[in-house]
Design brief:
By secondary structure, the protein is an all-beta fold. The chain has one domain (9-53). Helices cover 0% and strands 56% of the residues. It has strands at residues 9-15, 25-28, 31-41, 46-53. InterPro entries: Phage_SPP1_head-tail_adaptor (IPR008767), SSP1_head-tail_sf (IPR038666).
Length: 54
Amino acid sequence: MAGKAEAAEARFVVRYRSDVTTANQIECDGQRFCVVGVDEIGRREALALIVRAV
């Protein structure tokens, strides 16, 4: 479709935190990302964050 740009998506694995939600944004190497999914790894060992570039 003309005029639509595809946003870059990525997956980050981070230390477990109970306060991370899809309402959060993160920044990595100067690039800002919206969190679109949060998956717990193990029993509170880590989080897999699915993100989309803003």
